[in-house]
Amino acid sequence: MKLDAKSLAISFGIVTAVLWTVCSVLVALMPGPMMSMTEHMFHSDMEGFSWTLTWTGFFIGLVSWTVWAAAAGWLIGWAYNRFASSNVA
To answer: Cα-Cα-Cα-Cα dihedral of 69, 73, 76, 78, to 10°?
Structure first.
């Protein structure tokens, strides 16, 4: 079975764009709880830090994360196809 690397790249990009948007909306609506969740995820104390969410930052993050995720999806598809068709066990 082969993976379509282009379709995988598009899927990764779309999912990442949706997750980035949801995360940004949550940060805008609930900055305190989202900072608390981030502290737990990073096992750190971020007292003194605050969110800086601007439209420019949102769009730069959206584009850059989407592009990198799509590239990762394509690379995963390419690598899978490369190694699945070889005799590497």
So the answer is: -130
Rounded to 5 degrees, what are φ and ψ at 53? -115, 110
Residue extents of the structural domains in the chain: 5-84
DSSP-assigned letter for residue 53: -
Predicted local distance difference test score (pLDDT) of residue 71: 99
Q: Model's pTM, two decimal places? A: 0.85
Angle at which helix 55-84 crosses helix 5-29, to 10 degrees, equals 150
Under 8 Å between Cβ of 77 and 3: yes
- In this prediction, residue 85 carries a pLDDT of 79
With helix as H, strand as E and coil as C, how does 26-45 read?
HHHHCHHHHHHHHHHHHCCC
Instruction: Give the containing element (helix H, strand E) for 50.
Output: none
Given a cut of 50, the residues of the chain with pLDDT beneath it are none
Six token digits for residue 32:
């305190």
